[in-house]
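Something for you to look into today, if you have time. Just paste the record in under my message, thanks.
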Amino acid sequence: MTEGRARTVFIGSGGFGRETLWRLGEHPDVALIGVVTAPPRAAGRGGRTSVTPIHEAARHLELRPILTPARLRDASALDDVLALSPDLIVLADYGQIVPPRLLELRHGALNLHPSLLPRYRGATPIPAAILAGDTETGVSLMRMDAGLDTGPIVAQVRVPLEGDETTPLLEETLELEAASLLTQYLGPWLRNKISATPQPDAGATVTRPLRREDGRLDPSRPAHELERKVRAYQPWPGSFVETDLGRLIVWRAEPDAGTTPVGIFDETGLGTGDRSQLRLREVQPAGGNRMSWDAFVRGRPTIVGSSIVP
């Protein structure tokens, strides 16, 4: 029965929205009538088909239908969503533009975004906060408009950062915060008890999708910058350097003072800019397993004294 409840379609693909989907399924003011997510894709060397985290969660919740359009803006995809007669869209971590007709529903379209908007609009707000060395981040609940994360803010929650977060772990934290934020404010929103406030222009920044080359570590930069990249770029695109022994992925590192020349490896790590050193703690050689830097040096002692390959 959906009488008296807002007919709601959830749109999302990444893991950031999983807990929100679970909470929506239990919300007393919501009738969850469908899910839109990215289509399955081939993954791994065997080409096995992999569905999105949201698709997996929706199947577990036995939600129907699960729509997987390649482009939500296509007329047929939009018609499929509108055929469900939704009152409300809730979106988290989808990565596509939402057609204007879905923004004009009775209760609009609400987006959960993992930053304190207007800071870090766009595709990669969680890595951006880590890269910048921010002392706090958060989640914004906003009513979507035609812009890129420019809609008015319904509510925000702030989350302190300790300076040791990786992107996967911070995403898990913000996933729970997002679900709690929506749970707290959705009922009042549906009953018109609260309104949205336009975002300020001051402080607005935009992030972009990450590319593989973003993960390359430049030893001319200070070690504290490189250590942030190591934490921010997990799991994609990863952080790496090229060596005479092949590509070396860096999983864990620490900044430190040092006298090793820039770009040269020693027994503890890599010489970097600004009279600093990136102490390597956990690495992964090409075609190998993750291991401690000490174990890597014992097995490949010629790395000591060698330089990275541009």
Observations:
- The mean pLDDT is 96.
- Residues 212-303 form a domain with the Methionyl-tRNA Fmet Formyltransferase; Chain A, domain 2 fold (CATH 3.10.25.10).
- The CA atoms of residues 244 and 309 lie 7 Å apart.
